[in-house]
Design a protein that fits this description.
Layout: E1 2-6, H1 13-25, E2 30-33, H2 44-56, E3 60-61, H3 65-69, H4 80-92, H5 95-103, E4 107-110, E5 113-116, H6 132-142, E6 146-149, E7 155-160, E8 166-169, E9 177-178, E10 185-189, E11 202-208, E12 213-219, H7 223-232, H8 237-245
Parallel strand pairs: 1-2, 2-3, 5-6, 6-10
Antiparallel strand pairs: 1-11, 4-5, 7-8, 7-10, 9-12, 11-12
């Protein structure tokens, strides 16, 4: 089975639709969606409708920190723009959509794959995996050969060497990477809805279980329309600019 891994959609309907279309063109048969479904963008309800339908059809969906924040609380640890977007998002969600977010687990497992938004090490603390130390802890905590995560909004890949140490690898979009047995792997799929690596194209990963490969993709989409919606909703200008610049 080919499983498309989406994360950090952040209420960006244009990016979500583009990634879904691209994944289907690549033969994706199922989806793993790793949290931060909402926040930042102007289409939380429409995105949740799409994701809920995928979940009804068997997709694995886990909760992110923005999804949790959308359910309540003061969000004192968030930047002002993120907090403003969360408060706005709360006013848009239906009771059914809040129930959907509330029911999402922090982690999910699919055979030899572990799905989490941040790190498998204490998932509820939303730790960022930004280097080999955090990656090693995440891979060890998941207990499975293959771990998928998000949260950091850029694509990266980590693996263990023969001695068990973690190493980082920079994936090339579109190039299939063989997941060599006897290693552990951690794939950070990148952000569908708010990339932050200087490239505004949406990001996701495709796991081919039969061939035991993972391929990272970047997908151009109409970010100008998504940015216009953010401005029209009265959300912080910074959030629109981020889509336009990829920073």
């Amino acid at each position: 089975m080919k499983i498309a891994v989406f994360t950090d959609i952040h209420s960006n309907l244009e990016a979500l639709a583009a990634c879904l279309a691209h994944a289907r063109s690549q033969g994706a048969e199922q989806y793993a969606i790793l949290g931060d479904l909402v926040g930042y963008g102007a289409d939380p309800c429409a995105c949740l409708e799409v994701i809920a339908e995928l979940a009804r059809n068997g997709a694995w969906v886990v909760r992110g920190n923005h999804d949790e924040a959308a359910l309540g609380g003061l969000c004192e640890n968030m930047a002002f723009a993120a907090r403003d977007a969360i408060y706005w998002t709360r006013e848009q969600l239906t009771p059914q959509q809040r129930d959907f977010l509330r029911a999402l687990p922090l982690v999910a497992r699919n055979g030899n794959a572990f799905y989490v938004h941040a790190s498998a090490e204490t998932p509820e603390r939303w730790r960022y995996v930004t280097g080999v130390v955090e990656a090693a802890r995440c891979m060890e905590a998941s207990g499975l050969p293959l771990t998928f995560g998000g949260h950091v909004h850029h694509q990266s890949l980590y693996y263990t060497t023969g001695s068990g140490k973690a190493q980082a690898f920079t994936p090339v979009p579109g190039a299939a990477i063989p997941l060599t047995p006897r290693r552990r792997w951690l794939a950070i799929a990148g952000s569908v809805g708010q990339p932050r690596d200087g490239n505004p194209a949406a990001a996701y990963a495709l796991h081919d279980q039969q061939r035991n490969t993972i391929t990272f993709f970047r997908v151009p989409y109409d970010y100008s329309s998504a940015a216009r919606k953010i401005r029209a909703a009265g959300l912080p200008e910074r959030l629109a600019q981020r889509l336009e610049t990829g920073h």
